[in-house]
Amino acid sequence: MPKLRVLQIVHETLVPPPTIEGLPEEEFLEVKTEWDVKTGLEELGHTVMPLGLRDELAPLRRAIDDWEPDVVFNLLEEFHGEVLYDAYVASYLELKRVAYTGCNPRGLILARDKALSKKVLAYHRIPVPRFAVFPRGRKVRRPKSLAFPVIVKSLVAEGSEGIAQASVVTSDEALAERVAFVHRTVGTDAVAEQFIDGRELYVAVLGNHRLRVLPTWELFLDGLPADAPRIATRKVKWDVGYQKKHGIDIGPARPLPEEVERKLPKLARRICRALNVDGYVRIDFRLTPEGKLYFLEANPNPDVAWGEEFASAAEAAGLDYEALLDRIVKNGLRRARG
């Protein structure tokens, strides 16, 4: 690949520093993804210009017009404090006719909404948990078709925000309390989903039209207390001390039933096409003890830090970190060329 001018867009608080020498570990972990991507692209010989954004597009317009990047590496997860607004930034890049990495706007909108994505996939006869949406400002009324236990989540927030052991509820009173908690603390509508007991599997997918499915990864929660629901809470995902205490890990999936092993790649591709997600995406599944797969959610533009599950799955498939970044950039360039 020729050497490129890469504009790296990130949240304004996550601009990678010129050097990490002397940077406390806690501060480095905050910008690890942005640092890894920047230095990985530079290892490939590209010129990288990080740009922090918060709530204005003017800096992005100026950077595109003045610097004329070959491609924008999009690491934004929100804009103006709204998770859903990342799709509008991608739309702006489309309007500017500039190549960018990651998912297109329509795929971002469909995938970010946990209820909308399940409606689309249910139409395509892909198994999803039963669910109900509880908007802010309305009384909580559980439909009879939604039986306990259920897990209460934010409708659109990512990274397990608002999810704890208390999110799994078994009564209408507890459901109302947890929905109110999500409304109050996360500031979004809530969704209650049928709780699917079983293994949590992650399938990473690369590509636009030709989709490459990477090896399946699994979240291991064996060390949690026996009575604790096996779910990916905020602590499970982000609290290093909690992870060490309970032996929580993510890695190559333990042996899967032959039928599941055969079905997963095909199912992941069907989901990507139904939701119109492209670039790079992680699909989350639950596998019941009876061997049935349920779609949980699609995560376009997942964390691509070195050593995290997406990059590790790519490495298991023969793509080292720089090769993964190279593939992501090429996918963005190909989409721009049509």
Sheet-strand content, in percent, reads 15-25%
Query: Which secondary-structure class do the elements indicate?
Result: alpha+beta
Oligomer: single chain
Helix content: 25-40%
- Low-pLDDT residue spans: none
Query: What is the overall shape?
Result: globular
Give a description of the structure.
This protein has 12 helices and 13 strands. It is an alpha+beta fold and 338 residues long. The protein has 3 domains: 5-102, Rossmann fold, CATH 3.40.50.20; 128-194, Dna Ligase, domain 1; 197-337, D-amino Acid Aminotransferase, Chain A, domain 1 (2-Layer Sandwich), CATH 3.30.470.20. Strands 8, 9, 10, 11, 12 and 13 form a 6-stranded antiparallel sheet that branches. A 4-stranded antiparallel sheet has the order 4-7-5-6, covered by helices on one side. A hairpin with a 5-residue loop joins strand 12 (279-287) and strand 13 (293-300). Helix 2 packs across helix 12 and helix 4 packs antiparallel against helix 5 (105-112). The chain is globular. The mean pLDDT is 96.
